[in-house]
């Protein structure tokens, strides 16, 4: 009887041995779900109103640690500060108030490409009147040379 008991316990040990392999299927499932969530939400995180930005061959953005203040001008010359509409006359005083709260504030100016240069220059001047010296003009990166529309094609004779 003793031999039979030892045989059963040895058989039980073989069966109840812990599985030492990691099951990665749930991990992969969770990571794929997170990937889809980030892919869907990433385009929505861009602050701003729909503005057709001018296209350039290289985009120059001032890199900073702070979140910049977005000042935007749509094609109808309406001005927005972080998606909140504001008048041109109240732009400088409001920016001056924001500058007093955060002296290192930076502004990203997004102007619609269909606007003339004068409208953007007036808003940039009001930003300067508000005491903010660091202004970055936001643009889109052109994928093709033909997308850069600011200047006519050169005529070679």
Unreliable segments of 5+ consecutive residues: none
Proportion of helical residues: 25-40%
Separate helix tally: 4
The overall strand count is: 7
- CATH architecture designation of the largest domain: 2-Layer Sandwich
The shape is: elongated
How many strands, what sense, and barrel or not for the largest sheet? 5 strands, mixed
CATH topology tier name of the largest domain: Nucleotidyltransferase, domain 5
Indicate the mean pLDDT. Answer: 77
Order of helices and strands: HHEEEEHEHEE
Domain unit count: 2
Describe this structure in words.
- The protein is an alpha/beta fold and 157 residues long.
- It folds into 2 domains: 2-44, no CATH class; 55-147, Nucleotidyltransferase, domain 5 (2-Layer Sandwich), CATH 3.30.420.
- The protein contains 4 helices and 7 strands.
- Strand 5, helix 4 and strand 6 form a beta-alpha-beta unit.
- It is elongated.
- The model has no long low-confidence stretch (mean pLDDT 77).
Short structural description:
This protein has helices at residues 2-15, 25-41, 88-101, 117-129; strands at residues 55-56, 69-73, 79-81, 84-86, 107-111, 135-137, 140-141. With 157 residues, it is an alpha/beta fold.
């Amino acid at each position: 009887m003793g031999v039979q008991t030892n045989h059963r316990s040895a058989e039980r040990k073989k069966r109840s041995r812990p599985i030492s392999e990691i099951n990665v299927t749930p991990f992969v499932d969770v990571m794929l779900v997170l990937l889809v969530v980030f892919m869907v939400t990433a385009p929505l995180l861009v602050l701003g109103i729909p503005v057709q930005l001018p296209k350039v061959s290289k985009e120059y953005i001032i890199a900073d640690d702070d979140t910049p203040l977005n000042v935007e001008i749509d094609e109808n010359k309406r001005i927005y500060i972080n998606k909140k509409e504001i008048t041109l006359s109240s732009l400088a005083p409001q920016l001056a108030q924001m500058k007093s709260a955060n002296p290192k504030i930076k502004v990203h100016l997004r102007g619609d490409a269909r606007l003339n240069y004068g409208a953007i220059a007036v808003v940039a001047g009001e930003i300067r009147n508000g005491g903010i010296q660091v202004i970055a003009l936001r643009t889109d990166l052109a994928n093709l040379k033909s997308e850069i529309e600011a200047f006519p094609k050169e005529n070679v004779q």
